[in-house]
Design brief:
DUF1648 domain-containing protein; elongated; about 20% strand; membrane; single chain; alpha+beta; 5-stranded mixed sheet; 4-stranded antiparallel sheet; 11 strands; about 325 residues; PH-domain like; 3 domains
Length: about 325
């Protein structure tokens, strides 16, 4: 299962099976459920309710959201030949579906044969009902990724020699449409929820637009990044205003190379910290790999990464020679 087509078919099957499980489970016990349903508990006592149709729409919305994310990943990831990419995609997809089904089962079981939602009680099985299907989905996705892996290709770097008095620099700017669209979407939701809260719509507390506003501010930093390399090392500036700033000192760098990396391999799009290293991925493909002394590698998705790596290696070599002399 290494092609975009086979993965797309799997997403379609996953969506259909998930919808059938959610709707079928509800239809099977709908006549034994109160309306509205208890959907939130404080301890074992319910403190929130929702109509049966409203709750069904919520869990189906979770499934649709997972499908949308999966379709976005399929559209933006050009190469599925690497096993780690497929594992991240499939394990996340199936775990998400398992969580949605488990959440549906938790609410239905708690409300089963109850005449009034205020009498619904949750129990210790609620958490396992969510976690177990999610864990099973994660394991299944991990195994479905297969064993075959595409050999990783590394680019041949040009040779750059710098004298003690030579000055050289490299700079680029990378923009991400997905981050821009996400920022706009969250900003619109922030305005809408703030308007509803201001109008006294009781089901929208002020914490919702405040949280969305914080997410929006954080998201704008990922719409674009500026990366520069010079005698002091690597500087990464985030967003349209160039802040915050992330600096990697030249003395902390052991070398640089170029690798082809998919965003899902390193944890997804944006800034990610994983056991494999720290990655700033605004797209999949060519990446500048910075090997740091005593620390995890850094992956930066940039164009013309070979020139950046060659210059960085030359700067590191000159710096090391100066220290030794």
């Amino acid at each position: 299962m290494t092609s975009r087509r086979s993965l797309s078919i799997l997403v379609l099957i996953w969506s259909v099976v998930g919808i059938a499980a959610l709707v079928g489970g509800w239809l099977a016990v709908a006549d034994r459920l109160p309306d509205p349903l208890a959907v939130h508990w404080s301890g074992i006592s319910p403190d929130g309710s929702m109509s049966q149709i409203g709750w069904l729409a919520v869990v189906l919305g979770l499934l649709v959201a997972g499908t949308a994310v999966a379709c976005g990943a399929l559209a933006t990831t050009p190469d599925w030949g690497y096993r780690s990419t497929r594992r991240a995609f499939l394990a996340g997809l199936l775990a998400w579906g398992g969580s949605a089904v488990g959440l549906q089962a938790t609410v239905l079981i708690a409300n089963l044969d109850v005449t009034d939602w205020q009498d619904a009680r949750t129990s210790l099985i609620a958490l396992p009902l969510i976690l177990v299907p999610s864990a099973v989905g994660f394991a299944a996705g991990w195994l479905l990724a297969g064993n075959a892996d595409k050999p990783r290709q590394t680019a041949e770097l040009p040779t750059i020699t710098l004298g003690s008095g030579d000055r050289a620099a490299w700079a680029t700017r990378v923009s991400a449409r997905w981050a821009t669209y996400s920022f706009i979407g969250v900003a619109v939701l922030t305005v809408v929820t703030a308007a509803l809260a201001a109008a006294g719509f009781g089901q929208v507390p002020w914490i919702t637009p405040v949280a969305l506003a914080l997410v929006s501010v954080a998201g704008i930093t990922m719409t674009s990044v500026s990366i520069s390399i010079g005698a002091r090392g690597v500087t990464v500036r985030f967003g349209v205003i160039g802040w915050p700033v992330w600096r990697i000192k030249l003395s902390d760098i052991a070398g640089a190379s170029v690798e082809d990396r998919q965003a899902l391999e390193v944890g997804g799009w944006g800034l990610r910290v994983t056991p494999y290293g720290t990655a700033l991925m605004l797209r999949s493909g060519e990446c500048l790999v910075i090997e740091r002394r005593g620390k995890k590698n850094v992956f930066l998705s940039v164009d013309d990464a070979a020139s950046a790596a060659a210059l960085l290696n030359a700067l590191v070599e000159r710096d090391s020679a100066a220290v030794e002399s």
